[in-house]
Amino acid sequence: MSDVEKFVRFYESDFGRKVLNQEADYLYNELRDRKKILDIGCGIGSFEERLAKLNIIGLDSSEEMLKEARKRSNKKFVLGNAENLDFSKGSFDGAFTVTTLEFLENYKKAVNEVVKVLEPGGKLVTMMLNPESEYFKAHAQKADSYFRRIKHTNLKEIESYISKFFAATGEYFLGIRGQEVFGTRDKNLAALYVVKGVKV
Questions:
Q1: φ/ψ (deg, to 5) at 165
Q2: Strand, coil or helix: what is 182?
Q3: pLDDT truncated to tens, each residue of the chain (200 aa)?
Q4: Which of 7, 38, 125, 181 could form a disulfide linkage to 18, CB 3.0–4.6 angstroms apart?
Q5: Which residues contact 104 (CB under 8 A, 6 or more apart)?
Q6: 3-class secondary structure, 48
Q7: Neighbour-count burial for 53-91, b at 16+ CB within 10 Å, e otherwise
Q8: CB distance 44 to 65 below 8 Å
Q9: Residue pair 97/126 in contact by the 8 Å Cβ criterion
């Protein structure tokens, strides 16, 4: 099964929908006042589909993912690389990444690129898988889990790097136990760690 098929299967399951809706609500609350937003690592375009009211451009390095994304949303999708964003300086006032940064070879380069394409006062929201959570640990045990492809597990280190350019805060988010999805700030139960901030 291809990565695209796995994503489609996950996001179309009841559980996947619950997860996605929570993430999309969070992003909407953080970015709803932004006029032009970049989604870095947009995958199959699930957020573009859910955040129809927001002006988002989706970027991904996989043409297969983008093909699927274009079926789901009429927003603009571009082929590109997080570590080398091909947009002019200050062309966005918002950006987000969902389970992307921690999988990149060079997350610092990606953060530098986000800094470049965001205007002063631009906002970044980055959601990362929390390796300390029950959810992550259960998944990482499975031989074919993409969680095993994670490159960076020290999220505080990533947060500290982001804080060089953004007035940033971090919080645990999205409790997952079994098929249940709930609100929590407990690092053992929260599947994600979110770092968000405004470019200084």
A1: -115, -15
A2: strand
A3: 888 998 899 888 999 999 999 999 999 999 999 999 999 999 999 999 999 999 999 999 999 999 999 999 999 999 999 999 999 999 999 999 999 999 999 999 999 999 999 999 999 999 999 999 999 999 999 988 889 999 999 999 999 999 999 999 999 999 999 999 999 999 999 999 999 999 99
A4: 181
A5: 82, 83, 110, 151, 152
A6: helix
A7: ebebbbbbebeebbebbbebbebebeebebbebebeeee
A8: yes
A9: yes
Q: What is the pLDDT of residue 184?
A: 96
Give me the CATH topology for the region 3-199.
Rossmann fold (3.40.50)
Looking at residue 122, its pLDDT comes to: 98
Would you give the DSSP letter of residue 100?
-
**Could you identify the residue written with the tokens 């394409």?**
117
What's the rounded Cα separation, in Å, for the pair 80 and 30? 24
Cα angle at 149 between 127 and 48, to 5 degrees? 40
DSSP 16: H
Residue length, the chain?
200
Which are the contacts of 30, defined by CB distance < 8 A and separation ≥ 6?
Answer: 96, 123, 125, 196
AA letter at 54: L
